[in-house]
């Protein structure tokens, strides 16, 4: 089923897929959705440029998007060393002690870089790289991007999307010039608020008015959920967790064996919201790592971007240790329904077919 | 729109409304839904009997339901005095100190009764009273009722429903003989789990199979949400918070001025999940009372039924004080969308009309 947003973005299905993998993003676009590449993992903007160059060549000319993590106002930002000095030693001790008790060995070679995409300067560089390519959409995970970024995108005919977990945030984004609001319910993986999709989505649709398309995010993984989002007034859906268990996801990303086993095993009850990943509230798959941070002796997480500097190396150590019981991985509650690894094209075909089937079923209901 | 469940329950619209008010319950049934009277507030089963007698005469012969709060296994239960002795003095001191600091005066006369409906013996008496009337449905807020209760209901042709917040609970309920599962997402008011409706509802629908009707609960307050629940595979919806702001709600219940003002003012962000109401996790409207329990100096809530014994008198003092900033009231996130007090019949008519309209809109989407 096509919505007006499909025409506006030049896509076949009202399905937008967020993923850190350019292989997954390209496959989503090739299958008729809009693949949106998450830029935050690219510490060196040249690596993002290379990934987008590759996408330009591997999307059959179809549109794609780029997602950055950019606060509207630049936070105080020092050099990497300055920032590291703000991390309290007690927090470092807790992380080291926890990793040791969980059997996570140190990395073979010293490796100091956290994920720098949380830094405003790096996110700005990501935007510049994106503008040199041909994205149909620039999305910002932290709400409205700065005004000059919105202006530059619009000059190039690129739509701007922002994620909102509350209706007041959505209203402000539209006032700032954002074109598409992603209404992200609490069910979602990664940064997420407290309001469930069932309540949030129609609330934001009504608040921003008919001229602003809204994507439903949080808890979407099947065609019935796609149809439910459209029932609630969305122009499409924004999905994230689903793509973590696609065949294309493994390509070009570091070892994901433990993460995939953890995600395949997780039920819808096996996620938790916490500030431990980035400093902002985010939903992660439950593991011994998230449990350690929930224990009474654990320190309060630090604000963004300090928390990621604190845990960045821990995340890489955890990834290298490859233990499914000790993972640090954002995922939504829909992870309970993803129980096999499939090609992206099959996922999209099933979404579309199930939504059509569900609509046919609704049309068989008799009037009351 | 009619589902098979409408035929099974003998109702026009797939809308089940839970409410502590017999006036609201009767109005829901008269308007073509199924009004379900919450029994927990009736400390004296004779009062429940009187309310059901009244409903028998004021529902135009249409079906209604009764909701009890009954654990499957009887908990250890002593006399009222024995139970009270299990409440730690430090908890009592915290409650008294908090009420004083919030300006909530003592009750004029000593009044010792908590809400006894949480006690298994009282819930059993509620069931007996219900069985002497003509409910179409007995629902249990705490999962499967005891086997003999299910058997007695079935002997009389009464359907049994249970609330489930997780898929494993739903599976167990069906194995126990429950006829209808209420899949209650985290958005819901009162006792509620962690999984959002968007994820929980199709998960439970698939787990219990096509022969067991599932009602979507949590976040339902409009026709679009009703249609979304049906899209997700539900046979209908179970709504609670919406009825708190109907004209009929004030009839026959104690003073609700402060509660209504608090609910009318609340946004979807103004609820909180906590164990402070009954000892089990429940969503309440945020107030200075819920904030006091979230403060670092607050004690951990006690298990059910002790927490209600601890706060029962506080709830009555708070109600008598009638301050909209200090309320102790279960409500779901949908409370943000309920901004006026309306007759029940208008609410139901709008639900049905908006659902029809949303389905018409879905049918205008072009194929992709």
Give a verbal description of the structure.
Chains A, B: Pfam families: NMO (PF03060). 2 copies of one chain form a homodimer. Chain A is α/β, with parallel strands linked by helices. Chain A has 2 domains: 1-77 and 119-253, Alpha-Beta Barrel (TIM Barrel); 78-113 and 258-337, no CATH class. The first copy, chain A, has helices spanning 4-9, 22-30, 45-57, 80-84, 89-101, 120-131, 147-155, 167-176, 197-208, 223-231, 257-265, 288-294, 306-321, 344-363; strands at 15-19, 34-38, 64-68, 137-140, 159-164, 180-184, 190-191, 214-217, 236-239, 271-274, 282-285. An 8-stranded parallel β-barrel of chain A has the order 1-2-3-4-5-6-8-9, surrounded by 6 helices. In chain A, strand 2 (34-38), helix 3 and strand 3 form a beta-alpha-beta unit. In chain A, helix 5 (89-101) packs parallel to helix 13 (306-321). Chain A is globular, with a radius of gyration of 20 Å. The model of chain A has no long low-confidence stretch (mean pLDDT 93).
């Amino acid at each position: 089923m096509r919505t007006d947003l499909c025409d506006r973005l030049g896509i076949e299905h009202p399905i937008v897929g967020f993923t850190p993998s350019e292989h997954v993003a390209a496959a989503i676009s090739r299958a008729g959705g809009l693949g949106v590449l998450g830029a935050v993992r690219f510490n060196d903007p040249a690596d993002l440029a290379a990934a987008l160059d590759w996408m330009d060549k591997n999307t059959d000319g179809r549109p794609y998007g780029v997602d950055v993590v950019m606060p509207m106002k630049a936070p105080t930002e020092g050099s990497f060393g300055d920032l590291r000095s703000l991390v309290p030693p007690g927090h470092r001790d807790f992380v080291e002690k926890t990793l040791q008790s969980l059997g996570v060995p140190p990395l073979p070679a010293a490796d100091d870089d956290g994920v720098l995409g949380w830094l405003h300067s790096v996110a700005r560089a990501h935007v510049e790289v994106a503008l040199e390519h041909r994205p149909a959409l620039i999305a910002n995970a932290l709400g409205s991007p700065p005004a000059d970024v919105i202006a530059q995108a619009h000059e190039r005919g690129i739509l701007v999307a922002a994620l909102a977990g509350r209706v007041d945030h959505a209203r402000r984004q539209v006032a700032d010039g954002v074109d598409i609001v992603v209404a992200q319910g609490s069910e979602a993986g990664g940064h997420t608020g407290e309001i469930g999709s069932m309540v949030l989505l129609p609330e934001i649709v009504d608040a921003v008015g008919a001229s602003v398309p809204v994507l439903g995010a949080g808890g979407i993984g099947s065609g019935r959920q796609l149809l439910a989002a459209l029932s609630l007034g969305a122009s499409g859906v924004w999905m994230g967790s689903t793509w973590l268990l696609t065949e294309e996801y493994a390509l070009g990303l570091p070892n994901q064996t433990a993460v995939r086993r953890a995600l395949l095993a997780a039920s819808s009850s096996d996620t938790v919201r916490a500030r431990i990943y980035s400093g902002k509230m985010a939903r992660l798959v439950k593991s011994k790592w998230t449990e350690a941070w929930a224990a009474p002796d654990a320190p309060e997480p630090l604000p963004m971007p300090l928390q990621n500097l604190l845990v960045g190396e821990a995340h890489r150590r955890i990834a290298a240790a490859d233990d499914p019981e000790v993972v640090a991985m954002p995922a939504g509650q829909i992870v309970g329904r993803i129980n096999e690894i499939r090609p992206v094209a099959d996922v999209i075909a099933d979404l579309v077919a199930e939504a059509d089937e569900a609509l046919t079923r609704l049309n068989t209901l008799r009037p009351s």
